[in-house]
Amino acid sequence: MNAWLKRLGLLVVLFSFCAHLHAQGVVRFTLSETDVIREHLFGISVALSDDELLVGSPGDFDAYGPYAGAVHIFRRRGDQWLPYDTLKASDDSSLRGFGRSIALDSVYALIRGGARRINRPDGTSFLFGSVYVFKREGDRWAEQTKLTPPPDSAYSFGPPLALHDDFAFVGARDGTRTAVYIFKRHGDTWEKHTKLTPSRSIEEGNDEFGSPLCLAGDWLAVGAHRDDERGRDAGAVYVYQRQDDTWAERAKLMASDAKSADQFGRAIACTDEEIIISAYSGGSTYVFKRAQDQWIEQRERIVVPGDPENNRFLWPIFMNDTYLVLSGSKKFDAFLEAGVAYFFKRNEQGWAFLRELSAPDASQWDGFGQALAAAGDWMAFGAPYKDTYREEEGAVYVIHARAIDRHLEIPASPVPYVLGFAQNYPNPFSESTTIRYSVPRRMPVRLVVYDLLGRELATLVEAQQDAGLYTIDFEAQNLPAGLYFYRIEMGHLAFTHRMMLIR
Fold first, then answer.
1. How far is CA 296 from the centre of its chain?
2. Within a domain: residue 53?
3. Nearest CA among 471, 469, 477 for reference residue 429
4. Nearest CA to 486 among 457, 446, 454, 449?
5. What residues form DSSP beta bridges with 165?
6. How far apart are CA 16 and CA 360, in angstroms?
7. How many helices (H) and strands (E) would you count in the chain?
8. How much is the pTM?
C-alpha cells in the first residue's frame, strides 16, 4: 500500500490551490492543505517574468518524505494567473526545503534545494545544501544540473541566489563563515568560477555576508547586515565590479550614522548608478549613488510616514526606473503586526512617497512582502505565514501597476477564483459533499475517489473540459465512515485531497 500511495502522491499530507482574482489587478493565491501539517510556507520565495510566476513552497510533501518542497508555476492569461506546472527535485537529496529561494531569467531558473545533515568522521556534522538549475525547454522547465559546494568544504548553499548573463551567484555558509560562490556557464555546463569573501576578517560571530545579493549590469552588491565594524550588528554592504570574468571589491558601504543593531544591509535594491539599502529598524532607507567608481551616500534619505518605531525593514526591496518598494513589518495596533509594502515613485527630486499597501485580510505575522518580485507591469508579494493556524498556509498577492498608480485598494471581499483544486465542502461530511475545481484551458480532466487502501470507488469526471470553474457533488450514503481521498488530473497537472465521512 505504501508504494501505491507514493505513486499516487498522497503520503500523509495532500494539498490544493486556490486564489482570489481581484477586479483592480490584484490576484491572491493560497495553498491550502489538510489539518495535519501547517508549514508549507507557500510564498516564501517568488520569481516573476511578464507571463510566468514561480512560487516556492518548501514545506510540501512528496514521495521523498515530509518537507521535500516544490516550486509551483502559474502562467498569465490576460489578467488571470493560472496553475501550469510543479517543479520538484529529481532526487531525494533535497529532503527539506526545495524552493526556499528562486532566481529567474528568460532561460534559466535557480532553485535552492533542501539541506541534509552530513556527519564528519570526527563525530561532528553540518548541513549540506545544494542548488538546482532548471532550463526552459519550449513551454516547460527541465532540470539540467545541480550545483553543490566543493567536496572538501563544509559550506551549505543558499538561500541567497542571483542570475546574471552566464553567471550564477549562490550565498553559502560554514558555521560562522560566509561566502558567495560564483558559477559560470559553458554551454549547458556550470562550473565553479570563484568564491567571494568579505575583506574584513571576522574572528567571532557571523556577519551574514552574502545575504542578500543584488546584481545590476557589471555591479554586485552583497549584504553583510551583521558586520561589526561600526558596532555590533551595525551592518555593511560590499560592492563588487565585474572586469572581464573577475569580480573585484570596490567599496564597503556603511551608514554614516551607524549604530549597534541597525543591521544596515538587511535589504538591497540596485541599478548600475544607484544602490538603496535598508536597515532593520529606524524607518529610514539610505541612498548611495555612483560617481565613476565611487559610491557616495546621499544626504536625503527615504523615509516612510508614521512612527519609525513601528516599522522594521526585514525583507526585500525593489527598484526600477519608476518605482521603489520597501517591505517589512508594521505595528498596525496593539494586537496586529503584519507585513506592509511602501511604494515610492521617482520624480526630479528623487523618490516621493506614493502609498502604503498591506493585505486586506492581514493577520498577525503574515509575512506579506517577505518575498518580492517584479516584471513588466506586475509585482508579486509572498506572505508565507498567512493563516498559520487555519486551513490556509501561505499566500501570494500579484498586483498590477494600475492598482498602484490609481491608488486602488485590494478589495476586502474579493470575487473568488479557484485555482486548480479546492477543498471539498463541507468536510467532514455525513452524506454528500461538493468538490470545486477550475480548468486553466481545454484539456482532459479525470476526478476519482479512492478509499484508504487505494481502491477506486467512483469516477466523478472523465472528459474533455473547457477552461472555467466547475463543481460536482459526491454522494456517499452507501459508504462507511472513514477517510477517503479524491484526485483530479488535468493534463500534466494533478492535485489530491482527503475528506472525512462521518456518521
1. 32
2. no
3. 477
4. 449
5. none
6. 22
7. 2, 38
8. 0.76
